[in-house]
Amino acid sequence: MSAVAQIDDVSFAHPGSELRALQRLSFRVAAGETVAVLGPSGAGKTTLLTLLDGRLHGWRGLVSVLDAPLDPDQPQPRARRADTGFIFQEFALVERSTVLRNVINGRLGRMPPLRAFLGNSSPRDLKIARDALIDCGIADLAERRVDSLSGGQRQRVAIARCLAQEPLLILADEPVSNLDPARAAEILALLTGAARSRNATVLFSSHQPELACRFAERVVGMRDGRIVFDAPAANLTNDTTAELYRETAPFSRPSLRAVG
Ligand SMILES: Nc1ncnc2c1ncn2[C@@H]1O[C@H](COP(=O)(O)OP(=O)(O)OP(=O)(O)O)[C@@H](O)[C@H]1O
Ligand SMILES: [Mg+2]
User: Fold this and answer.
1) Cut 0.85: pTM above it
2) Residue 102 CA to chain centroid, in angstroms?
3) What radius of gyration, in Å, describes the C-alpha atoms of the chain?
4) In angstroms, rounded to a whole number, what is the distance separating the alpha carbons of residues 208 and 174?
5) Measuring CA to CA, which residue among 131, 137, 197, 139 is closest to residue 170?
6) φ and ψ at 182, to 5 degrees?
7) Ligand having the closest approach to the CA of 222
8) Among 118, 175, 190, 226, which is most exposed with the fewest C-beta within 10 angstroms?
9) Which residue minimizes the CA distance to atom 6 of ligand 1?
């Protein structure tokens, strides 16, 4: 299978920070995979997803997304950005706009620049946005303002907006962190199911190992900017995830072998 994302020996420190948020990281995601990234706070999950979204600068090493290398010194071209969808932890929705308008915004990167600037959506854009609302079970909320919605409903809007973009790679940063367990499972089922039916590749970060294993086929554990395990979800044990989140003690080799 071809690689949708490939990272070779990448190191990165955020501007003004001494600490390397990513440390000599190497990682490959194949087309169609669903991968969960676990790890304690500060492990580098958001940094990794942001890197793949082409929003970091000045890293060292090689990064390639959708068969094209990213340039650490240049912003990514608009056409390229349209193929990668990002679902933010805080949704990043336009609160005072309607649900439908927010979802149509997912089409902006696919519209000719002038039309995008004027916010003139075509009938096709509208149809794609309405289909995404149906897929996310929120067609009845189309005309509601986002600031009147619950956390779970907002998350559905954020996913619908991402699907409307028709991305080949979906990056989701803790997409269920604000939801109760039943709602979280529902949303992850929706996200991974919709991605699969569109042949999109998904990488999502999470603090919930049990859910990650249920909805991803592969789970990556990060700590201190490094990948400490990378295993099929079915092979992951409770001991391994417990060790990942332990306060001190670096990851020990035996459990690495246990999941490898
Ligand atoms: N904008 C920034 N400026 C400076 N340092 C940053 C910035 N963003 C993140 N960092 C640092 O980079 C490291 C990795 O942070 P990152 O946000 O990637 O972790 P995370 O695994 O997503 O954590 P969480 O689970 O809390 O979301 C941390 O040490 C963090 O303090
Ligand atoms: Mg984060």
Assistant:
1) yes
2) 18
3) 18
4) 9
5) 197
6) -70, -45
7) 1
8) 118
9) 14
Q: Compute, in angstroms, the gap from residue 130 CA to the centroid of ligand 2.
A: 30
Q: Is residue 254 part of a domain?
A: yes
| 168: its two tokens | 């080949």
Does residue 194 lie in a domain region? no
Question: Is 184 part of any domain?
Answer: no
Whether 53 maps to a domain, the answer reads yes
The residues whose Cβ lies within 5 A of ligand 2, an ion, are: 45-46
Q: Which of 65, 93, 66 is nearest to 160 (CA)?
A: 93
166: alpha, beta or left, given left = phi > 0 and alpha = psi -120 to 50? left
CATH of the domain at 258: 3.40.50.300
Q: Considering only CA atoms, which residue is closest to atom 11 of ligand 1? A: 21
- E runs forming strands in the chain: 3-12, 22-30, 34-38, 60-65, 68-69, 84-87, 169-172, 201-205, 218-223, 226-232
Weakest-pLDDT range from 13-27, 78-92, 106-120, 246-260: 246-260
Q: How far is the CA of 68 from the centre of ligand 1 (A)?
A: 26
Q: Over the stretch 136-174, which tens digit does the pLDDT of each residue have?
A: 999 999 999 999 999 889 989 999 999 999 999 999 999
CB count within 10 Å of CB 210 equals 13
pLDDT (tens digit per residue) in 165-210: 999 999 999 998 878 888 889 889 999 999 999 899 999 999 999 9
| Domain tally, the chain | 1
In whole angstroms, what is the distance from residue 145 CA to residue 167 CA? 25
* Full domain range(s) for residue 259: 1-76+203-260
